[in-house]
Amino acid sequence: MKKLTIAIDGHASTGKSSIAKELAVSLGYTYINSGSMYRAVTLYAVENNLMDLIDNNIDQFINLLNNNKIHFKFNKNLISEIFLNDRNIENEIKSLKVSQKVSVVAAIPKIRKEMVKLQRNIDRNKGIVMDGRDIGSVVFPDADLKLFLTASPEVRAKRRYNEMVDSGEKVEFHEVLENITYRDNLDSTRKDSPLIIQKDAVVIDNSFLSIEDQLLKISSLIKEKLNN
Ligand code: CDP
Questions:
Q1: I want to staple 136 with a disulfide (CB 3.0 to 4.6 A). Which of 32, 146, 183, 196 is the partner?
Q2: 102 in contact with ligand 1, CB cutoff 6 A
């Protein structure tokens, strides 16, 4: 059967990764969360006090970064999890500390170039679902299906806040909401690979849609693509 490349872009905390994971598992495709790669770079910079170096000498930072390995491994449920060298950083990258810096780091062209290289090196032959901000526009402009997810900032902040509290992080709702609107603004206005709605993308506002509703809609789009 034909194997598709599915690109899911959209605003912060729109549930892209939950949808992408479900789709990848049901189709037997590879799932890659490109945001986790930018978060991994940010965690590395924050932990090693390298945020100033990013500002002052980006080439030196890239050299240091390239001595490390950002990669994915499959867990027992066949879901990819991100590693920095031998360390599973799947949970740490979701912290507010990382979320507050990631969009500044992700706006830097030389960092994007490195990440896009890694993303394009991933084997697409088995089918892939990748989520992020520039997947349909820059990483895989030839994607078979492009989705753009959005929802109201309040709904998104509530979902992310609940997720963070459940995972034991101490945060205030207003901090989460501010971070989401701050990231949307930076991601949409940066010069290199801004978040934009591609002409051939299907826009889904999931403010009032359950994951099941969205999967139903997307599954019928996938069927159409597979039958074409
Ligand atoms: O899951 P959430 O919507 O919070 O964000 P994410 O997908 O983990 O991405 C975190 C940040 O990484 C975004 O706010 C962007 O600044 C950046 N990003 C990007 O620039 N390009 C991508 N393809 C993916 C993420």
A1: 146
A2: yes
CB 136 within 8 A of CB 193: no
What is the C-alpha separation between 186 and 102, in angstroms, rounded? 10
What is the chain's mean pLDDT, rounded?
96
> Which residue intervals of 150-210 are DSSP H helices?
153-166, 173-189
Does residue 50 contact residue 61 with C-beta atoms inside 8 Å?
yes
39 CB near ligand 1 (under 6 Å): yes
Write down the domain spans for the chain: 5-227
Which atom in ligand 1 lies closest to the alpha carbon of residue 186?
16
Amino acid present at 41 = V
Tell me the per-residue pLDDT of 38-83, one tens digit each, with 9 for 90 and over. 999 999 999 999 999 999 999 999 999 999 999 999 888 778 899 9
CATH of domain 5-227: 3.40.50.300
